[in-house]
Amino acid sequence: MQKSGKVKSQAGTEAPGGYELDAQVGFLLRVAMQRHTSIFMSHMVDELTQTQFAVMAKLHEVGPSSQNHLGRLVYLDAATIKGVVDRLGLRGFVATGADPNDRRRRAVSLTEKGSRVVEAAIRVAADVTTKTLRPLTVDEQRTLTRLLKKIT
């Protein structure tokens, strides 16, 4: 920062009050996410959204789960996870029924079709991650992942 309270932007101009949008973490995370989303959507199988993929990948990882617990595992609120599960159910990717451990809850599981789709999607997702992180060195990729985990 200079004595005037202004900082030079990347373009070499002074940013009033020292605030430069291009240097803000939220802005940079959003732009990085837009880039990742573009790569994801151009490669993902069966037109899965990132949220749908996350739900299916987590079910693949942990097995059948109550809808409520599944939502917490993928950081979705109750209304959002219900909508995602309903849409995946309409496509035949998941099935719901009474949770054998607690009949008040809905249990969600992958169908055979859902298992096939998510296994193919996981292979694609690994390639999407590689493409998203391509501008970084391997050490930078590890550091970015570590730091993102630290702030989530």
Q: Explain this structure to me?
A:
There is one protein chain. The protein has helices at residues 25-43, 50-62, 67-73, 78-90, 112-133, 138-151; strands at 7-8, 14-15, 65-66, 94-99, 102-110. It is elongated and about 60 Å long. It is an alpha+beta fold and 152 residues long. The chain has a domain at 47-151: Arc Repressor Mutant, subunit A (Orthogonal Bundle). The longest helix is centred in the last third of the chain and has 22 residues, at 112-133. The relative contact order is 0.11. Helix 3 (67-73) packs across helix 4 (78-90). Helix content is 58%, strand content 14%. The strands form two sheets. A three-stranded antiparallel beta sheet has the order 3-5-4.
Query: CATH topology of one domain, which one?
Result: Arc Repressor Mutant, subunit A
Note the total helix count: 6
Summing up helix and strand content along with how strands pair, one would put the structural category as alpha+beta
Second-tier CATH architecture of one domain: Orthogonal Bundle
Q: Tell me the span between the first and last alpha carbons.
A: 30 Å
Largest sheet: 3 strands, antiparallel
The first-level CATH class name of one domain: Mainly Alpha
| Counted beta strands | 5
Order of helices and strands: EEHHEHHEEHH
The percent range for helix content is: 55-70%
| CATH homology superfamily of one domain | Winged helix-like DNA-binding domain superfamily/Winged helix DNA-binding domain
Mean pLDDT: 91
Would you identify the regions where 5 or more consecutive residues have pLDDT less than 50? none
Computed over alpha carbons, the radius of gyration is 20 Å
| Principal-axis shape | elongated
Strand content: 5-15%
Order of strands, widest sheet:
3-5-4
